[in-house]
């Protein structure tokens, strides 16, 4: 079961990190355009991208939490725990910063964006950059854990006592 959970955790965290990276590239490409273009593109993004985030982040969180539990007594526990902590950070940052801005932007008129649109954009993009980096680090941590031979902590302790 641990192997299947590890595969699912890697799959969903990788998809989520890739999704965030794609959005980040698009968002930073928009920085050279005015508020009208930015608002139009954001409204298109907000049409369905939140759904993609949900169907990749929530399974990534769930499978990584299960993997953390399943590997707690192994040498990979810190890597899976770090990945879980990073994904939880992403989730919290999304709830606190990105989703409220998304909800506000749904009401924006592309022909007349708010006067402070660029400050709001900057705040959203900064939070998005932080969560993208955290998601990539979570995926990297899970990937590294998957490459290590998993040994139970008890076996490592016994082996250490036998060599003394």
Polypeptide structure, described:
This protein is an all-alpha fold and 164 residues long. Helices cover 82% and strands 0% of the residues. The chain contains 5 helices and no strands. The chain has helices at 2-29, 35-70, 77-105, 117-147, 153-163. Helix 3 (77-105) packs antiparallel against helix 4 (117-147). The longest helix is centred in the first third of the chain and has 36 residues, at 35-70. The radius of gyration is 20 Å and the shape is elongated. The mean pLDDT is 92.
Distance between the termini: 34 Å
The helix/strand order is HHHHH
Radius of gyration, taken over Cα atoms and rounded to an integer in Å? 20 Å
Low-confidence stretches: none
Strand content: under 5%
Give helix % range: over 70%
Quick one: biggest sheet? none
Which structural class should the secondary elements be placed in? mainly alpha
Instruction: Give the averaged pLDDT, no decimals.
Output: 92
Put simply, the count of helices is: 5
Say how many strands there are: 0
Features:
5 helices; mainly alpha; 164 residues
Please sum up the structure shown:
This protein is mostly helical and 164 residues long.
Fold blueprint:
Layout: H1 2-29, H2 35-70, H3 77-105, H4 117-147, H5 153-163
Helix pairs in contact: 1-2, 1-4, 2-3, 3-4
């Amino acid at each position: 079961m641990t192997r299947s959970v590890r595969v699912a955790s890697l799959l969903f965290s990788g998809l989520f990190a890739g999704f965030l990276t794609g959005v980040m590239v698009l968002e930073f490409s928009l920085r050279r355009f005015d508020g009208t273009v930015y608002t139009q593109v954001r409204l298109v993004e907000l049409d369905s991208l939140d759904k993609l985030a949900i169907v990749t982040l929530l399974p990534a969180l769930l499978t990584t939490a299960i993997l953390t539990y399943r590997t707690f007594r192994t040498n990979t526990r810190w890597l899976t725990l770090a990945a879980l902590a990073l994904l939880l950070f992403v989730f919290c940052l999304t709830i606190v910063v990105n989703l409220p801005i998304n909800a506000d932007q749904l009401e924006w008129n592309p022909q007349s964006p708010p006067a402070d649109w660029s400050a709001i954009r900057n705040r959203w993009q900064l939070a998005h950059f932080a969560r993208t980096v955290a998601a990539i680090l979570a995926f990297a941590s899970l990937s590294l854990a998957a490459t290590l031979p998993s040994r139970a902590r008890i076996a490592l302790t016994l082996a250490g006592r036998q060599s003394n």
